[in-house]
Predict the structure.
Amino acid sequence: MRGDGRLYLRGGTWYADYTTRGQRVRTSTEIASDAKGKGKREANDWLRQRIEEGKAGTVAPQADKVTLAELVDAYLLDRAGNKSVHRAKRRWEKHLAPFFGNIKAVRLTTDLLRTYIAKRQAERDGKGKTQPEPGTINRELAVVSAALHLGRAEGKVRMIPHIPLQDEDNTRTGYLHNEQYDRLATECGKIGLWLRAIFECAFQYGWRLHELIPERAKDKNGNRTLKGGLRVCQCDFDHGLVLLNPGETKNGEGREAPMIGHVESLLKACCAGKQPTDYVFTRNGNGSEPVRDFAKTWKKVTAAVGVPGLLFHDLRRTGVRNMVLAGIPDKVAMEISGHNSRAIFDRYNIKGRDLIEDARRKMETQNRERQQLRHTYGTGAPATPAQTQSLQ
């Protein structure tokens, strides 16, 4: 270590004085001195690691001083313009920052993260009843994880602790039955052509809401704007296709879907008299004023038809399920719905009670045929292949 740096004691703690990347660094190792010399050996190892990292250029000398708050700020700046950054910022400011404060990244441990989880699990809502869902806590910890990994890539973080996550129940259970579809389609039509058409597109293709109507966003200058939303020019009536533009879907990829019966007639009605750049779904026929939010209306129509808990996103699950039942190859169905991951697609492909009943009927038919074979040949043993063939 001679010539590279030195250790010295201050108040029973080993401090290091060394040079790395042309910068002189004086900092505490946070290792206490002891009579047996173990502390000094650990401090020497600590100093040797810092010097080697400096020579290799893998970690900046400020890595021991950077705070978690600074890493999160850098992460939010790096993600500026992304539609999810405002949620990450809100999670940090509301829950994470009050707990972790200005803690240094090197002081962040798995035990401390578990303490945060326990604190959040003990919290209740304003009525003192509901605690945060495991998924909510996991999304908060994901902000910490993302900030640490970005810091590691930039040489600001030396080591990332294990981040414990809670088990989540990601099973998708909501979907629309055929008889419910008829009632809900009628009720949407009573509200207006725009809602009837949005409902039909989501039901048929499994598209997300903000792939059909625009969502609020900010441009590179921080100004508020609208992003996405189906426009007249994306309805190709000549070729019978509905197109989603690249960059306006969740995965950033463009998609197209066949314009089937109900969808074609509804979209033609929505596009009538509008310019190619106008929005398709509008309340008053003005193509420059798109539908942006109808949460209260959706709650009203679902309650009216007896499915008050139905989410609009349940139409996405229904669309996936119906395409699979129609015999559309999974790969094609995934391209239409916009699922990149097979695992997520399988979670959305809900097996409903009617499918279970269909399986029951088929199993009972098979059992009856088996009993018939046994009765015909007068044996309790299973029929041979030749005997089975003789009854077909």
